[in-house]
Amino acid sequence: MVGGPGRVSGREADDPNTRANRRAGGAYIGGRSICQVPESANLPGTGPVGAGCHSDQVSTHHDFRLWRRTSGDELLSFEHANASFVTPYLAIGGDLETTTEDVAVGQLGELGDAGITHVIDVRLEWNDEDWVRERRADLEYLHLGIEDAGQRVPDEWFEEGVRFALEGIESGGIVLSHCHAGVNRGPSMGFAILLALGWDAVEALDAIHAARPIAFLAYAEDALRWHHGEGSPELAEDLRRLAAWRWRNHLRLEDVLRAVREQEELA
Predict the structure, then answer these.
(1) pLDDT exceeds 60 at position 264
(2) FRET pair for 217, CA 20 to 30 Å: which of 12, 84, 226, 256?
C-alpha cells in the first residue's frame, strides 16, 4: 500500500530526505515555475512570495502538497495535445493521435515542452509505449490498461498508478494520467492521485472539473473505496458527497459523451 489504504503517511510526507528529492524552486510548467520560491522564502501565511503565487498557497519542494489553485494562478493550456493541467504537477487527458504521425509527434512535443516527465496510460484497447519511447526515450511510461465498461476497478489498479505518480511527483516530475477521451479512466486515476496527496474529495473533484469540464470520472467511487477502505464511515460520507457533486454540476455520462463527440467532429 502507498502509506496505508490510499494515503501517503504523514511520516513519509514530512521526511526531509523525501522533500530534498523534489525539484528545487517549485512546480514547473512549460520550462518555467509558476510558483518558484527559494527555500529561504517565507512559508505559507508569513508574507509575500514569488510571482503567480499567494502567501497562503505556496508550492515549493518543501510544501507542494499545499498548493491549491486560486483566481490569481495560471496553469498552462495545450493547443494540440488532448490534456489539461489540474495542478502544476498533474495533468489528465486523452490519447495521442498516433494514426496521424505528424499530428501525434506535435502533440508529444507539446507535452514535452510543458514539462511532462511521467505518463500513466490506462487504456486497455491500446498502448503507445513503444511509439513514445522511440521518440522520447527519457519519458517514464506506465501502461496500466483497464476497460471503460463501468466495471468495478480493483484497488491494485489505483495502488500501482498512484505509486508511480507519487514517485514522479516527489522527484520533481510532472505526471500525465490519460485514457482515450479523458472522460473516465484517466481523470479517475488523477482523482486517486490527489486523494493520496491529501486533497479533500470534493476539492479534488472541483479542481478536475475546472480543468477539464468533460471529465465524468466514472470510477471515482472505486477510487474512494481504495482510499478509505470498504465499510468506513469516511467512505460512506464521501460517496454521498460525490453523488451530490455530480448532481450539483449537472453531470450525466450521456451528456458528457455527446459533448466529446461534438468536439471530435469539430476537430
Answers:
(1) no
(2) 12
Residues in the chain: 267
Q: What is the pTM of this model?
A: 0.76
Report whether pLDDT(25) > 90.
no
pLDDT at 30: 32
Query: Among all chains, which residue has been given the C-alpha cell 465524468?
Result: 216
Interval 26-34 mean pLDDT: 33
- Does residue 142 sit within a domain? yes
Is residue 194 situated within a structural domain? Answer: yes
pLDDT of 267 strictly over 70: no
Q: What is the CATH number of the domain that holds 95?
A: 3.90.190.10
Q: Which domain holds residue 246?
A: 78-266
Residue 4 counted as domain residue: no
Measured between alpha carbons, how far is 22 from 240 in angstroms, rounded to an integer?
35
Spell out the SS3 assignment of the chain. Answer: CCCCCCCCCHHHHCCHHHHHCCCCCCCEECCEECCCCCCCCCCCCCCCCCCCCCCCCCCCCCCHHHCCCCCCCCCCCCCCCCEEEEECCEEEECCCCCCCHHHHHHHHHHHHHCCCCEEEEEECCCCCHHHHHHHCCCCEEEEEEECCCCCCCCHHHHHHHHHHHHHHHHCCCCEEEECCCCCCHHHHHHHHHHHHCCCCHHHHHHHHHHHCCCCCCCCHHHHHHHHHCCCCHHHHHHHHHHHHHHHHCCCCHHHHHHHHHHHHHHC
Dmax (CA) of the chain: 52
Q: Identify the pLDDT of residue 265.
A: 53
What's the number of domains the chain is made of? 1
